[in-house]
Amino acid sequence: MIDSNQNQNLSSLLKDGTSRVHSEIEGSPFMTSFVGGKLHSSDYALYLRNLQAIYESLESKLEELKNHPNLGRFYIPELFRTKALQLDIEYFNKENHNFRITDATREYLNHLDLIYETNVLFLVSHLYVRYLGDLSGGQMLARILRKQFHLEEGVGDHFYRFDIKDIPGFKKNFREILNSLDLNDSEKQNLVEEAIYAFQLNGNLFLSMV
Ligand code: HEM
Fold it and tell me: pTM (2 decimals)?
């Protein structure tokens, strides 16, 4: 445990602790193609299908954990993405492909199942990485997607559209929930390590798309 982390809140520890892996993932070939407006619609549909498997896993676990003293605080249906992903897959999967779930996605899913059985608190790190990411850089990716595929708002972009009026305010609340967990310094540090791993699992998922 690093002394300088003492008494720091979990949200700042997560942000600082994952900033390096965040930059690495931002520069991955898949994200670079995405940001450059170069993804083919079938690659994008494959990506959505794999993300859907991840969100189904996260959200079915949250459903089970609704009354858990810590995880129950993250039961926030406005965040749920499974249905939004289904709508976008139907839009982009015009040729009705049966998209594969990649080995990297399976590894991610297996890991989520493992922590659900062994250390459910680690799910917090995964919720942070996906949902706060979708509410942050995800909003920029939505603009790129709309431009590239000439999408009207509300068509093919459901994944990025949250029924949330004040996204910055919502992110602030989400951070407050993170900070409200009663954790000691070493538990906080473990959640930072798990968030780094969550970023890596996402990076592997991106690599498996190309
Ligand atoms: C090219 C791709 C990406 C760009 C340009 C990008 C950009 C950004 C930006 C500008 C922020 C700061 C927003 C703010 O402070 O309000 C942010 C935050 C964040 N991003 Fe990304 N991002 C990208 C990809 C990703 C991916 C793939 C993930 C996760 C899988 C992710 C997870 C996060 C998280 C968790 C935060 C919140 C950090 C915090 O405030 O604690 N990002 N991103």
Answer: 0.95
One-letter amino acid identity for 125? S
H helix intervals, the chain: 10-17, 19-26, 29-35, 41-64, 82-92, 103-118, 123-127, 133-134, 137-149, 167-180, 185-207
Say if ligand 1 is within 6 A of residue 26 CB. yes
Counting from 1 in the atom list of ligand 1, the atom nearest the Cα of 202 is 30
- The two structure tokens encoding residue 154: 């509300």
Atom of ligand 1 nearest to the CA of 195: 35
Provide the pLDDT confidence category of residue 97 given band limits of 50, 70 and 90. confident
Q: Which domains does the chain have, with CATH numbers?
A: 7-207 (1.20.910.10)
- Tell me the C-alpha distance between 131 and 167, whole Å: 12
Q: By C-alpha distance, which of 18, 40, 39 is closest to 195? A: 18
